[in-house]
Amino acid sequence: MKLALAEVPPFTFTVARSFVAGLALLATCGMAAPLDLLRRAPWHMLAVAFLTNTLTYAGLYWGTAQVSVGLAAIVNNALMPLGLFALGLAFGEEAFSRRRLAGIALGAAGLALLFAPQTTPAGDAASFAGLLAVAGGTLAYCLGSVWSRPLMRGASPVAVGALQMLAGGVLMVPFAWLAERPDVGVLAALFRPVPLASLLWLALPSGAAGLAIYLRLIRDWGPTRAGMYAFVSPLIAVVLGALVLGERLGPLEWIGGAAMLAAAGHVLPGRGGSVPTRARRR
Known about the structure:
Helices cover 76% and strands 0% of the residues. The chain is an all-alpha fold. It is globular.
């Protein structure tokens, strides 16, 4: 993403990623299941797509531009499992668990240590608004994830993911047009070697396959356990930054990474706390 956004505006890139990922998922599951889902729950599906794609990326991209990457990463990744846990409780998709709450707190502390060297204070109105936008985008993704679980009682994660990506891409088009006014030159930049390679990676293994796995975990494990990826993926990113880009890791990063892995290990075992996806509620 970092390499692609040096050549292509973020909303335009997100629209392209959503369409490519959505079409890949659609090719996997066929047209029948997504069309049936749209007939059964059109507004529910559109709400999930709007929350998880449009509002999420609008908030994250705009907000991250206003604050340091470290602050944005802490807010986004610490709020993700907490938001999934709280909203899962609110909508009956989780049962309360002190073990999970303790694990989330430990992971958030580790995340703060991991990104401490990249963090600068947010001292003005624009920075504060940026943090609110990142938080809002994160919570929109959490709410959309929780709302997607009932959809998967009658449809596969792949079908839900295909509609989520395609509808979310369509709903993102006005944001891209108003904010970036992409012309032919901008669209052509998507086919340059670096943006194209980035697009294919982020749309296929990272987007289509990653979303299908995440939605299956949401369905089978519940929101909180699925959300533990937020304590693992930043650590992978930091390690890859050290290996590929030569970024240095200090003691705080190592301690923070160990705390995040411990948090994930604390939360993941067992089923306790998750409401079965096939349970019926009135």
